[in-house]
Amino acid sequence: MVNTTVKKEAFDFLKKLETNNNREWFAEHKDKYKLHETDVKSFYGSVMEHLNKHDQIEKLKMFRIYRDVRFSKDKTPYKSHFAGSFSRAGAERRGGYYLRLKPSETFIATGFWDPNKEDLHRIRKELEVDASNFRKIISNTDFKKTWGELQGDAVKTAPKGFDKEHQEIDLIRQKQFIFVRNFSDKEVLSKDFLNQVDNSFKAIRPYFDLMSSILTTNLNGESLIG
């Protein structure tokens, strides 16, 4: 059965898991977890279905609840949230969508959070030459109302090979080019949450179109894909 809402019972389970984050408790309640997981996966499937009405999604990846604690100071074995990402289809479509469901800390994110070295250099070179289209999109009133400000890690001064006094250095310094929108529990558990998520993802499209154009061409505007 298709699930178009996030159930309060799933959030209640996550709250209990955060308080009882140990293997013994989880083993006792694993049957309930599996039920909530099935419901949540169905909701993510609904998000993907909506996305495919205005984009083309290649894959939905649901992240495991089990934490990799090998290199972490936090040794709790489970994540107290559900999360999934949506990959756009085809070499000509760049960027991705992400949704995390967690009591008091639900958010969606989109953009470029881990660009490879070549993509990052290409974006920076474009911004060095002309950042006007980029700035026009991210400063649009409706865009900012939905997504706020550009976020992501940045280098402290300037990347190697770039002038630290360049007028666009605030953008060139970026290592990530992402946008994040947070939601209250009341918003998440409302009947309208699916539409809010989908409308937010729709609003990012001008940004994706520009970045996809940049990443599939060279500085002369020549296509890099067959």
List keywords for this structure.
about 230 residues, alpha+beta, BirA Bifunctional Protein, domain 2, 10 helices, about 45% helix
Structure, described:
- 43% of the residues lie in helices and 15% in strands.
- By secondary structure, it is of the alpha+beta class.
- It has one domain (8-215): 2-Layer Sandwich (BirA Bifunctional Protein, domain 2).
- Strands 1-2-3-4-5 form a five-stranded antiparallel sheet.
- A hairpin with a 4-residue loop joins strand 3 and strand 4.
- The longest helix has 22 residues, at 30-51.
- The model has no long low-confidence stretch (mean pLDDT 96).
Strand order of the largest sheet: 1-2-3-4-5
What is the helix content?
40-55%
What does the overall shape look like? globular
**What name does CATH use for the topology?**
BirA Bifunctional Protein, domain 2
Main beta-sheet annotation: 5 strands, antiparallel
What is the number of helices? 10
Mean pLDDT: 96
Helical/strand content category: alpha+beta
| Rounded radius of gyration (Å) | 20 Å
* Percent of residues in beta strands: 5-15%
CATH architecture: 2-Layer Sandwich
Q: pLDDT under 50 segments (min length 5)? A: none
Protein name: DUF2461 domain-containing protein
Pfam families: DUF2461
Furnish the topology, listing elements before pairings.
Blueprint: H1 8-19, H2 23-28, H3 30-51, E1 57-62, E2 82-88, E3 96-101, E4 106-112, H4 117-129, H5 132-138, H6 141-147, H7 169-172, E5 177-183, H8 185-188, H9 193-203, H10 205-215
Antiparallel strand pairs: 1-2, 2-3, 3-4, 4-5
Helix pairs in contact: 3-9, 5-10
Protein name: DUF2461 domain-containing protein
Organism: Croceitalea rosinachiae
Pfam families: DUF2461
